[in-house]
Every structure is written in C-alpha cells, then in structure tokens.
Amino acid sequence: MVLLGSEYVTLKQGDPAPDFSLMNIDGTFYSLQDIKGENATLIIFMCNHCPYVLPKIAEIKRIAEDFKDKGLVVIGMNSNESENYPEDSYEKMQEYFDEWGVDFYYLHDESQEVAREYGAVCTPDPFLFDADLKLIFHSRIDDTHGKQEGKHELYVAIEEFLDSENISMEENPSMGCSIKWKN
C-alpha cells in the first residue's frame, strides 16, 4: 500500500470535467452528461477495500442523501485494476455497493482512462463540479478518518456552494492508497 495525496496538475479550478461513458454497478452505461447534477456533481475516485475509503463511506452516503434534493449528484468511480487486486473487480463492486447500502452511482473505469483524464492518483480523490461541470473544489472529504469529531470539509464546502455559489474553504489534498494502475 502506497499513501499518496491528490495532485493538482491535470485539472485545475475552472477546468471542464472530462466526459465518459462507463458501466454502473447495475450494468447500465452512463455518460457524465446523462447523470450530472442540476446544481453540482461530485466525482469520487474510490475502490472497494481501501482502508482510507472505507471509513469515508458513511460521510459519502451522508453527502449524497443530504444534498440530493438540492441538485447534487454523487458518482463513485473505481479505476483500480482487478487482476492483481481482485477485491476491486466489477463483481466485488456490486457486492460492496449492496453491503454499504448507498444511493449514488458507482462506475467502473476498467480502462483507467477516466482516472488519467482527471488526474486522480489516490483513493479517495474527490472532485466537485458546478452545474456547468467546471471544477470548483478538489479537496479531501474530511479529517476524521471514520470518527464523528473533526472537520467534515467537503460537506461544508458543498453546503456553502449550494447556498451561495461560493466556497471560502481552502483545499487540502486527499490522502489515500494509490490507484492500482495496469502495467
């Protein structure tokens, strides 16, 4: 396991979100245009077994549930190769999704092209986009690592953006396991 932080070299604030067409855990292919949020879209590069993702699932669920009616769509994206990491296979994605009981999209980036286009390097690696799919916030989910106390930064940033179309919070790199790249 290699601990990495988010990088800010590929997508910068104001850059458009690269489009994609990927399979959801229900077998349906979706493009970003098909499922983007009315007011904001949160894309989180994640995987099934990462010890940095698992403690964040409850917070991701809370974000998805609390802001769904305010026009936010949450998209989880698994870009890990699964030949050497079978816990990240498409079948395991379906199992974990059911186990977690989440209500957001969970897409399989089998080719890893989407992760490369976004500049994602770790799990979790969240990217928040506005209604026009322009990057507005690329920061960690929180500093709690599964505990209730701490700063729920992404939640606060989304809430502020949906209320005022502004984010005053400073970005902090997400830290997590490296994306498991193919050769």
Describe what you observe in this structure:
It is a single chain. Helices cover 24% and strands 23% of the residues. The two termini are 16 Å apart. The chain has a single domain, classed as Glutaredoxin (3-Layer(aba) Sandwich), CATH 3.40.30. The protein contains five helices and ten strands, in the order βββαβαβαβαβββαβ. The chain is globular and about 45 Å long. A hairpin with a 4-residue loop joins strand 2 (21-24) and strand 3 (29-31). It has 183 residues and is of the alpha+beta class.
SSE order and pairing:
Layout: E1 3-5, E2 21-24, E3 29-31, H1 32-35, E4 40-45, H2 57-67, E5 72-78, H3 90-100, E6 105-108, H4 113-118, E7 122-123, E8 125-130, E9 135-137, H5 153-164, E10 175-178
Parallel strand pairs: 4-5, 5-6
Antiparallel strand pairs: 1-10, 2-3, 2-6, 4-8, 7-10, 8-9
Can you summarize the main beta sheet?
7 strands, mixed
Rg on CA atoms, Å: 15 Å
The residue ranges in which pLDDT falls below 50 over 5 or more consecutive positions are none
Output mean pLDDT.
93
Helix/strand structural class: alpha+beta
Our count of domains comes out at 1
Which shape, going by the Cα principal axes? globular
Strand order of the largest sheet: 3-2-6-5-4-8-9
Give the % helix. Answer: 10-25%
CATH topology: Glutaredoxin
- H/E topology pattern: EEEHEHEHEHEEEHE
Portion in beta strands: 15-25%
For the record, the CATH architecture stands as: 3-Layer(aba) Sandwich
Number of E-type strands: 10
Q: By CATH's scheme, which homologous superfamily applies?
A: Glutaredoxin
Report, as a whole number of angstroms, the end-to-end distance.
Answer: 16 Å
- CATH top level is Alpha Beta
